[in-house]
Amino acid sequence: MENPYLKVDKQIVSEIYTTSEPMDNLKVLCDVYGSRFPGTKGDLRSVKWMVKRLKKYGVKNAHFETFKIPGWKRGKATLKVTSPIKKEFDVISLPHSIGSEIESKLVYLGDGAIEDYERRKDEIEGNVVLVTSRNPLGMKRFLHRTEKYMRSILARAKGWIFMNHYPAYGPPTGGISPIIPALGISYEDGSYLVRLLERENEVTVKIKTIDKNMEVETYNVICDVPGTSEDNEFVVAGSHYDGHDISQGAVDPASGAVTVMEIARNLWKVRKHLKRRVRLICFGAEETGLFGSYNYVATHPKEMKDIRFMLNLDSGGSKGKKGVTFHDFPELEAYVEKWAAEMNAEMTTDQRVSPYSDHWPFFLKGVPSGSGGDPEARRTRTGRGYGHTKYDTVDKVEMEYLRLAAANYTRFLFRVANADEWKPRRKTQKEIHAFSEEQGYDQTIKLAEKVKDFVRTWDEIHADTRDWLDRKSEW
Ligand SMILES: [Zn+2]
Predict the structure, then answer these.
(1) d(CA 467, CA 215)
(2) Strand pairing of 87-89 and 91-93?
(3) What is the CA(375)–ligand 1 centre distance, in A?
(4) How far, in Å, from the CA of 156 to the mean position of ligand 1?
(5) What is the rounded distance in angstroms from the CA atom of residue 352 to the CA atom of residue 370?
(6) Is the peptide bond between 253 and the residue preceding it cis, with omega within 30 degrees of 0?
(7) Tens digits of per-residue pLDDT, 397-425?
(8) 312 CA distance to ligand 1 centroid (A)?
(9) CB hemisphere CA count around 377 (13 angstroms)
(10) CA 19 to mean position of chain CA atoms
(11) pTM of the full predicted structure?
């Protein structure tokens, strides 16, 4: 197939494959600045460093925007079995857990299928729920941790333990709402508790957490590669840069953030040929509730109609093929097919939308969007592996995939920006609403409202929970 951009492609690909820029950046982001969790020292420092790097590349308008979000500081968590034996376990609090102390019976819910919270309500009431991170068998959509947590609360659980379903990765983390104390436990320790419960029928546990919920400042890093045309339309590519506080967040998300920076650097080098502007964004505070992307969409309302396409590269440099999963825009598949052929790149496509990353606020505004990654792997994925554990470290990231991601997506975005025929149909608010409903995503939102109403009826409400109830909006 004839390639109208052969010269540009050659320049981009040879630059990417003869430098180690994204890997060098990844090491600094993770080893020097740590998790970049909102409110940590490394957060602001990493943001200033990213802006400095981007300025060095030459790109325009490199800056960061500041906003306030509900933050959280981890304290040491303990979990003890107090009866029929005495034993202590290594656990961690889940972000936004309240600081609290409770002693109660342990109830194991397996993978936490939706029907079990109703069915076993009597057992759950007043007790501590133990549930795995695995998706329940036969469940079509992804049953997110927060939904398992909220359904446990509606069944009147007083404590919550989230068990990794992967061996050897330690306790998992992941944000919840500040209502009851919530812990992560390893597969091995969780399995021990399950066996103890099977043998003894009744197990009492004591949970102590000393976490703090408070407001913190965090950031979005933004820059532009301007286009040569007068067109107002532009393209957005982004990835969050914040990791979980227990982790380097190397694959998720730093491999994506450095891919975004590498795309900026390479698009800048071919800017003379770029028709429309490409805006690159590294979002803050994704892990605890998509705060960065929601903030961007809320503070740049006029831009929404001019965004041609938003490519989310969350964990973009992870191992695997680099295609595009479009968010229900089937008319865009033909573009990738044609472009992949002229680029001689292997880029497959798929259609599916998850509400759990930074494309979601853009999707809700009707912006045509997609996620980078391997569509096939996305379809068959059953969990996070070492993601969201302390083992998501720099050594998990391979140069090969950082390069592949940068090579495919720089050229893909260049083509999106240059295409004269680009007409994905923007969804109306009504269509988006109907789509969310059909996918079952509105259930999560309704569930959150239900939980708030329920918690308001409690006699005793923790101060952190009170703040959460008073907050007007969350994602
Ligand atoms: Zn992520």
Answers:
(1) 10
(2) unpaired
(3) 16
(4) 30
(5) 9
(6) yes
(7) 999 999 999 999 999 999 999 999 998 98
(8) 10
(9) 14
(10) 28
(11) 0.93
